[in-house]
Amino acid sequence: MGYSKLGRNSSARKALFRSVLVSLFKHERIETTEAKAKEISGLAEKLITLAKRDDLSARRQVVAELVDKEVAKKLFDEIAPKYKERNGGYTRILKLGVRRGDAAPMALLELVK
């Protein structure tokens, strides 16, 4: 299967992932649906691994993916150095139960301390 389409076309899905990634790196934890959390988790892991390299090419790739330069700067200056000694597993998904309005399974996606 590969990945979840989340009921969106490819451009809307990419825009959603960008905005959720920016929120995750800005606030270091977000509450979202389980399906979105599972998809975003892998993308966040890849961006953190890229940021750990900390060269010009990595910076350009991260800025191209995130668009928000302030968040990209925070990723390189604050978040990536915390994980220098860690080989993956930068995010954690905690299940929260169901959303009241539509009973969608909710989860807390956070960066591991």
TrEMBL record:
<dbReference type="GO" id="GO:0003735">
    <property type="term" value="F:structural constituent of ribosome"/>
</dbReference>
<keyword id="KW-0687">Ribonucleoprotein</keyword>
<protein>
    <recommendedName>
        <fullName>Large ribosomal subunit protein bL17</fullName>
    </recommendedName>
</protein>
<dbReference type="GO" id="GO:0006412">
    <property type="term" value="P:translation"/>
</dbReference>
<dbReference type="InterPro" id="IPR047859">
    <property type="entry name" value="Ribosomal_bL17_CS"/>
</dbReference>
<comment type="similarity">
    <text>Belongs to the bacterial ribosomal protein bL17 family.</text>
</comment>
<dbReference type="InterPro" id="IPR036373">
    <property type="entry name" value="Ribosomal_bL17_sf"/>
</dbReference>
<comment type="subunit">
    <text>Part of the 50S ribosomal subunit. Contacts protein L32.</text>
</comment>
<dbReference type="InterPro" id="IPR000456">
    <property type="entry name" value="Ribosomal_bL17"/>
</dbReference>
<dbReference type="Pfam" id="PF01196">
    <property type="entry name" value="Ribosomal_L17"/>
</dbReference>
<keyword id="KW-0689">Ribosomal protein</keyword>
<dbReference type="GO" id="GO:0022625">
    <property type="term" value="C:cytosolic large ribosomal subunit"/>
</dbReference>
